[in-house]
Every structure is written in C-alpha cells, then in structure tokens.
Inverse folding.
C-alpha cells in the first residue's frame, strides 16, 4: 500500500478488525468502574486543578502523623498522639475528603449523562452502585486507615526492639484496620447516597458537609430534649457520624476518655446498618432511572 | 456481511406498551425487523427513543416483550448488552477526560480486558477519524468530533448491532455527510447491523434498507426501502446528453416516458415498463441518440411518499430535507 522505498518501511491500513479476544464478567466490570472512579476523583489524567484539593487533604492528614513520628524519634518516651486521638483529629479531614470524592463519583455521571451509557452495557444498575461503593470505600481508606497504619509502623520501627514491639502491638493494627475500614465505608456510603440525588457537584459537596455538621447539632439537640429518657438519649449517637465514629474508636481502643455508654457491637451494628441502608436507597434510586 | 447470530431478525416486539404517567409513549407495538440497516423514522415524540431504550434494556415496558438478536431484553439483558452498542442522542460524554481514556473505559465496561480495551479504543478512534485528537480533552472538541467519540464508544467492544439515536444532530453539512458515510461503512463494510433513529428522511433514505415509521407511539409502516412500486414497476433512467431527443426517440419506438419530476435532475426520466421490449428500446434509443445511460433502476416510491401515505401528512414535525436545505 505504500510507495515509499523499502528501507523506510511500509505503512499498512489495518482497516477495522473485529475483536475475538476474551470478554470478562461482572467482577471485572465492577472493578474497572471502581478503579476508573478512583482515578477520576483523584484527578488522574485530568488538569492539575483537579488534583490540588485531594493532594492538600492528603498533606493535611499526613501532618499529625509526621509530627507524632518525629517527636517519637527525637524525644523518646513521649507519646504525642495515640490512635484514638489520631482518628479524632482526622475525622473532619476524612469528612471533607468524602464530600469531595462522592460527588465526583456520582453527580458527575448524572451531570455528564453517562448513566444511559453505563446501563446499556453489561454492567447492571446494582453492579454500578456496588462499584461506586467499592471505589469510594477504597479511596477513603487511604485517608482513614493509612495514617493510623503509618503511625503504627513508625511506632514499631522506632521502638528499641522493633520486631518484638510490632508483634506485641498486632492487636492495635487489627483495631486500626477495623476502625479505618468501617469509617471509610460508613462515611463513603453516606456521601455517595447524598451525591446520587443530584447532578450538580457543588450542591452535593455543600449538602454533604452541611449534613455532617447539622447531624451533630441534631444529635445534641435530641440528647438535650430527651434528657429524662436515658434509654433514648443513649441511641441519639446514631444521628451523628462523629459520635458514632468516636464511640467505635473509644470502645475498640478501650480509651477511657472516649468511653460512652454505647457498646462496641452497637457502634459496629449502627455503622453496618447505615452502609446497608444507604446502599439500598441507591439501588432503589437507580432502578428508577429510565 | 452480517455476522452470524441465533436469529434472522434484528429485533422483534410483541404488544409493547410504555406509559409515562398519562402519556402513552408506545402503544401495542408489534414488529419483526430483519437483519438490515434499519431506519427508525418519525416526528419528535413518536416514541423512537423510548423504543430504543426498551430494546437496550435501559427502560422497562409496561406490557409486552422485546427480543434483540434473538435474546429477550428483560431476561437476557446482560448477555444481550454485551452484543449491542448504543450512541445516545444527548451529549453523553465527560468533558474533562480524553477521548482515548473514555472510550477505553467504556470498552472495559463491556468486559474487555484493560490492555485490549486500550488497543481497541485506539483502533476505533482511528477508524472514526479521531486518531490525532484522541489524547485531547473532550471539552475542547467540536460537535462533530464529540459525535465521533460517541460513535467510537458504541463500536469499541465490536458489537453485532449498534443503536444510533439521531447521530447527525447538530452537525454542519460537511459533518453530516461524513457521519452518514461512516455509518454506511459500518454496516456495509464491517457487517455491523444498525438501527438508526432519526426524524430526517434523507438520513434514513441514504443509509438504511429497511424502515420502521412510528407516529404517536404506534407503528404506521414497517417495510424494506427501495422496493419497486408494484403498481407501476416503471424504470428510472438517467442519460448523458439531451433527454428531449432521447424521449423523442423512445416515443418513436412506441415506449411511453416522462421527466422524473421536479425533485430529480432534468436528465432523469421515468419510463413505463412494457415487458422486455422496453429494455431493448432503451438500449436502442441510447445508441441512436449517442446518450450513454448513467442510471437504470426500478422506479421506487420515495420514503417521503411512504411517510405521507402512512402518516397522512409530511408536515407534522418530520423533516424530509437535509439541515442546510431546511434552513
């Protein structure tokens, strides 16, 4: 097809080739959608402006960990930040992070009218929600789990005898994993559910942040109003993500300062229930999409 | 060149009903459409997009069933959607993604492994004419380029059938020509079945060989295009040279003929068929007048004739002209 001399090679028009390779199943599409959603939320292959806020939040969450490890390295014997305090310190940042990524994952698809394209593919509506939940949960893990895990690693490595110290604190690592995972999927599910109702990212960001803030006030107001009914007041934490998370962390790490009258099972149960309810609301909502 | 599949039909529906509140979008639609380049024609609000969405399994009918490529849209939805592609009417593209990333992602959504998806995306974008631009953000694309990206994502997983919803929407005359050429090639050269939904007669007439006409949610016609008119079975002829001399020569041979009409070129004629001697007379007249034949085909009723017969009026929202002429 080419008229160029042979030493320069030849150019072929390959034309259109039919695809006869493998076609993978639902697990592949769910993972591919989750991975794509994570990459888009972090601003990968997008202009640098889309990367700024996630990177700033990562930097902000790294600061207390870096300070804690630094103090431990240079002033032995002083524990600047324990795990419950770290979870308390980064809760707000994790909340803002979720408010940022959830609209990017859900509202953008609605805004860009991509839902008919997704739903015309083998990926079903249920798998779509599952993929988004997986994406949001895994991405939020990098904010909720990673800092505490790094702190645990730092504490272990800076101990006089690192390996025995790390072996002795494996319980702590287990608690960190449980807390970090539950927090990531709990906050992620709430954020995704709110964001799924609108195609406007800015509105979704505002409503999520406002929702987290108002839930504290609402929970506090109900506690005050029902002061003479302690059984009901005990459950008012359900309305507050912060109180729920701190109840979980307090019980997991047996932190006296965070000791509430909520049992560990109740805290875990409430978080799991919220994840399930948010998922069911999204499943139902996307079934309606015509 | 269509690829083998389990059914002789592109799609079939039985008693399909779709309501949006009090509005009936589709009203007992029964269709059996052969494997062809199918045009779905009708004015705005006729139910074309609703029918497409039901065929894709995106929307569920209130009553009735639909099968595409022999598979039930409700029961076999996932398997079916791996075999079809969809180019929506709306601007369904993420602004701040590159064409290559987005098309590759949509290939993965159809089950292609990551590496194959990237390769297919590059190939298909090249095929639709977006080779150089594939690493640019979509938000910088013209309307025509965006339409091509939409077409590429519909083709990237190599479907057997592709649904195209108003693919020439918003395109300038040149872009429209290129898009119609591309769609024609997809069917003829690649063997991919197409279902083209449009309200522009010319788009359907140029690309399709079967037409379904919808009006008010009902099927008013479902038939092949370009079928000789059985009432007349006349011939449509174009000659190079003076058509008047040619006509006079035909008349001297006892063959009746007339100009094709104002919508055709001046050198196009309709010749009344009178057995084999008509063809002999055309040959002889052409030789005698030195006017070479440029066209000889059965005279067909135009799509506009079909539409007017079926619906009753060509003026209720249907555009029979190309966009430039319409303006």
């Amino acid at each position: 097809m080419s008229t160029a001399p042979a030493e320069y090679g030849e150019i072929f028009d390959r034309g259109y080739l039919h695809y006869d390779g493998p076609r993978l199943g639902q697990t592949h599409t769910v993972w591919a959608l989750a991975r794509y959603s994570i990459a888009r939320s972090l601003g990968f292959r997008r202009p640098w402006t889309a990367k700024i806020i996630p990177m700033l939040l990562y930097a902000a969450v790294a600061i207390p960990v870096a300070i804690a490890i630094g103090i431990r390295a240079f002033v032995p014997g002083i524990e600047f930040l324990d795990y419950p305090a770290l979870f308390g310190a980064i809760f707000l940042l994790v909340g803002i992070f979720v408010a940022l990524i959830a609209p990017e994952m859900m509202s953008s698809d609605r805004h860009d009218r991509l839902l008919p394209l997704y739903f015309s593919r083998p990926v079903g509506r249920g798998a779509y929600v599952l993929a988004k939940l997986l994406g949001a949960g895994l991405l939020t893990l990098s904010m909720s789990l990673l800092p505490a895990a790094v702190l645990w690693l730092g504490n272990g490595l800076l101990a006089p005898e690192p390996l025995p110290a790390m072996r002795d604190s494996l319980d702590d690592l287990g608690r960190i994993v449980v807390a970090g995972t539950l927090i990531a999927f709990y906050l992620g599910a709430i954020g995704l559910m709110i964001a799924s109702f609108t195609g406007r990212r800015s509105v979704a960001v505002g409503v999520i942040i406002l929702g987290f803030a108002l839930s504290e006030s609402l929970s506090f107001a109900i506690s005050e109003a029902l002061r003479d009914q302690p059984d009901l007041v005990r459950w008012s934490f359900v309305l507050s993500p912060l109180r729920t998370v701190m109840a979980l962390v307090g019980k997991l790490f047996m932190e006296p300062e965070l000791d509430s009258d909520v049992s560990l099972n109740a805290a875990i149960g409430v978080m799991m229930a919220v994840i399930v309810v948010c998922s069911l609301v999204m499943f139902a909502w996307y079934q309606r999409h015509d | 060149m269509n690829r083998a599949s389990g059914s002789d039909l592109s799609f079939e529906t039985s008693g399909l009903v779709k309501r949006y509140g009090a509005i009936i979008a589709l009203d007992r639609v029964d269709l059996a459409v052969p494997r062809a380049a199918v045009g779905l024609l009708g004015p705005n609000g006729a139910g074309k997009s609703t029918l497409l969405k039901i065929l894709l399994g995106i929307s569920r009918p209130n009553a009735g069933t639909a099968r595409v490529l022999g598979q039930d849209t409700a029961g076999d939805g996932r398997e079916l959607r791996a075999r079809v592609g969809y180019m929506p009417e709306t601007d369904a593209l993420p602004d701040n993604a590159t064409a290559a990333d987005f098309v590759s992602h949509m290939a993965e959504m159809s089950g292609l492994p990551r590496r194959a998806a990237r390769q297919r995306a590059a190939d298909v974008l090249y095929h639709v004419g977006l080779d150089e631009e594939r690493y640019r953000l979509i938000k910088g694309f013209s309307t025509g380029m965006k339409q091509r990206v939409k077409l590429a994502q519909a083709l990237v997983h190599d479907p057997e059938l592709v649904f195209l919803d108003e693919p020439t929407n918003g395109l300038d005359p040149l872009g429209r020509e290129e898009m119609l050429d591309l769609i024609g090639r997809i069917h003829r050269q690649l063997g991919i079945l197409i279902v083209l939904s449009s309200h522009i007669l010319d788009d359907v007439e140029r690309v399709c060989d079967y037409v379904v006409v919808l009006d008010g949610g009902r099927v008013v016609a479902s038939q092949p295009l370009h079928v000789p008119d059985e009432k007349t079975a006349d011939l449509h002829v174009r000659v190079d040279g003076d058509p008047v001399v040619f006509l006079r020569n035909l008349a001297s041979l006892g063959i009746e003929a007339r100009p094709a009409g104002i919508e055709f070129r001046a050198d196009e004629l309709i010749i009344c068929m009178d057995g084999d001697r008509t063809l002999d007379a055309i040959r002889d007249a052409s030789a005698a007048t030195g006017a070479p034949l440029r066209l000889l085909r059965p005279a067909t009723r135009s799509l506009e004739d079909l539409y007017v017969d079926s619906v009753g009026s060509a003026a209720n929202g249907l555009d029979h002209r190309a966009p430039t002429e319409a303006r």
